[in-house]
Amino acid sequence: MLKMVVPLALIFISSSCLADTQCGPFLITPGPDDGWFRVNNAKPESQKVTFLKAKEDYDNIKIAWTMATTQPGLWLGMEYIKRDGQAILNTQLLRASMDAPRIFGTYDCVKVKG
What we know:
This protein starts with a helix and ends with a strand. A hairpin with a 2-residue loop joins strand 1 (21-23) and strand 2 (26-30). The protein is mainly β. The protein has one domain (2-111). It is globular and about 40 Å long. Strands 3-2-1-8-7-6-5-4 form an eight-stranded antiparallel beta sheet. The protein is built from one helix and eight strands; from the N terminus they run H-E-E-E-E-E-E-E-E.
């Protein structure tokens, strides 16, 4: 029974937490039926959902993703933070070499009308 509840909870999180949202050049959409969000129609390599205040408080949530890029050894770390209805997306280019410069981005998020 528990094995059925967890996937259903993940589907509920992805569909109710975040409608189609535009954060700079990134379009964030709920996944079809797997509980994973999509970033520009691509499934992230990892996803972690954290409620910031109370359990199932979707106005105060943090979702972290790791996305692969088309370049070897280059990943994108993303952190969607929504507090009291206001959302931002923080990004960081993750590199294999510690000597490489860090590249950060922060974007305001808006719900896509449609």
